[in-house]
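Need residues for this backbone.
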C-alpha cells in the first residue's frame, strides 16, 4: 500500500473501512474497500487518465440490465485517482463453478453484450482490426526467440505462419465488424456474488473493436457456449472467435515475460502448443 493513497481514501470516506490493496493492474493500483463495495484506483504514471473510463461507465449505466456494474463516485480533474461504487462478489476465475452457475453467467453476459454492442459512445478509442493485428505482432515478435527456444522448429514455424499470415488473412476476409465493446472481458473481470448475481468490472479498455474481442478470452466452454447462444452469434462470429483464440496465447506471452515470470511464460508456451494441435 502507498501511505498517501490510503490517507486520501480515508479522508474521502471519513470512517473506518477494511481496505485491501491490489497491485495487479497494468495502469493502476487498486484499493478494494468493504469486499468490493467501493474501489479506488490510482495511476501508475502521470500519463494515465480516467476520463475515458468515466465517460464509459456513465454511458453503460444508462442500460437496463440485471448485470452488476461499477458507478463513478469520486473523481478529480487531474486523474490523481478514481473512486467507484464497486461490484460485490468474487472473480469467476477464482471460483469452482457448477454447470448451472456457468449457464447463468453465460446467459447474463451474452444478453448484456447484445445491449452493450448497440450502445453509442463518443470520444472513446476506435480500433480497426488491422490495428489490432499490428498490436498482436508487436507483442509476439520481440519474444519469438523465447518461443523458438522452448518449442520445436516445426511448431515455431507453424506459429509464425499462423500469426503473421494465416490468421490475419482469414480475419480480414471475414470482415471488421466494429461495435462498442468491453475490450478486456476475462474471468478476472466477471464477478459472481453469493446470491448468484453476475457483475462486470474494468471498462478501462472499452472502445470500438471488432465484436469478437468480447468473446475470445472466455476459456470455459460451457460459459462460452451459453454466451454465444444468448447473444445470437452467427457462424462468422464463431469463426472469428476461434481464430482469435488460436493466436491469443502468443500475443499475451509478453505480460509474463515483462514480469520475469518464467513459470507463467512456460504455461503460456504450452497453451501455444495446444492451440497449434487444434488447427
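Answer:
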Amino acid at each position: 500500500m502507498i501511505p498517501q493513497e490510503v490517507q486520501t481514501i480515508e479522508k474521502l470516506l471519513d470512517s473506518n473501512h477494511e481496505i485491501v490493496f491490489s497491485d495487479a493492474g497494468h495502469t493502476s493500483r487498486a484499493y478494494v474497500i468493504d469486499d468490493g463495495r467501493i474501489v479506488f484506483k490510482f495511476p501508475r504514471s502521470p500519463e494515465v487518465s480516467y476520463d475515458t473510463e468515466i465517460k464509459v461507465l456513465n454511458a453503460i449505466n444508462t442500460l437496463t440490465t440485471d448485470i452488476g456494474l461499477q458507478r463513478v463516485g469520486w473523481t478529480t480533474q487531474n486523474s490523481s485517482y478514481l473512486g467507484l461504487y464497486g461490484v460485490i462478489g468474487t472473480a469467476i476465475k477464482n471460483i469452482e463453478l457448477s454447470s448451472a452457475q456457468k449457464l447463468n453467467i453465460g446467459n447474463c453476459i451474452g444478453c448484456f453484450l447484445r445491449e452493450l454492442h448497440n450502445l453509442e459512445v463518443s470520444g472513446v478509442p476506435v480500433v480497426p482490426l488491422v490495428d489490432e493485428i499490428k498490436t498482436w505482432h508487436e507483442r509476439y515478435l520481440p519474444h519469438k526467440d523465447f518461443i523458438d527456444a522452448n518449442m520445436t522448429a516445426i511448431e515455431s514455424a507453424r506459429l509464425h505462419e499462423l500469426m503473421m499470415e494465416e490468421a490475419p488473412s482469414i480475419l480480414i476476409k471475414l470482415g471488421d465488424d466494429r461495435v462498442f465493446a468491453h475490450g478486456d472481458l476475462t474471468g478476472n473481470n466477471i464477478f459472481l456474488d453469493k446470491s448468484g448475481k453476475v457483475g462486470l468490472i474494468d471498462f478501462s479498455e472499452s472502445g470500438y473493436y471488432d465484436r469478437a474481442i468480447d468473446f475470445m478470452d472466455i476459456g470455459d466452454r460451457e460459459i462460452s457456449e451459453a454466451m454465444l447462444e444468448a447473444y445470437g452469434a452467427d457462424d462468422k462470429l464463431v469463426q472469428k472467435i476461434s481464430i482469435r483464440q488460436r493466436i491469443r496465447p502468443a500475443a499475451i506471452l509478453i505480460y509474463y515475460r515483462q514480469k520475469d515470470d518464467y513459470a507463467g511464460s512456460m504455461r503460456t508456451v504450452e497453451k501455444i502448443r495446444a492451440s497449434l494441435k487444434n488447427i
